[in-house]
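Subject: for your reference before the review

Hello V.,

The reviewers asked for a structural picture of the protein, and I figured it would be easier to keep everything in one thread rather than splitting it across files. Below is the amino acid sequence we used in the manuscript, unchanged from the supplementary table.
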Amino acid sequence: MAIETVREYLRRFDADSRVLEFDVSSATVELAAKALNTQPGQIAKTLSFMAGEQPLLIVAAGDARIDNGKYKRTFGAKAKMMTAEELDRFTGLQFGGVCPFAIPDNVAIWLDESLRAWETVYPACGSSNSAIEVTLPELEQYSGARGWVDVTKMPAGE
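And here is what came back from the structure prediction:
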């Protein structure tokens, strides 16, 4: 079970006891925000892409959307979401529980600037009914992110 792998991984940071599990689904930004009684933007969604042959994860604010132009300028390729098969092969995770923790080293993890609007955010923990509240420095450390990128935009009217 992926959540147990993530919990074990977070133990090295003494953060495993902070993992939250819900009786309801948190598989989408909206469901996670409802389960946590917070704003959708505070949900740290982990988006999975293939940049050519390179798998990468981008952690962004829940209300942000990928800006295709910014993505292409940053990664040199068109934004192509991973298939369920690719996601399983590269991360061992399934849609609805994708997170930036316990990810193989060959998968690049990037944090999007949209997260900086929040002091703490809630990424998933490997299942469709889990999350952990982390500060941005904790997210950087726990995820092993390669750095920060600006590849999102906010929906019109926000």
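For the response letter, the relevant points are probably these. The chain is about 25% helix and 25% strand. The CA atoms of residues 11 and 73 lie 36 Å apart.

Happy to draft the paragraph if you're swamped.

O.
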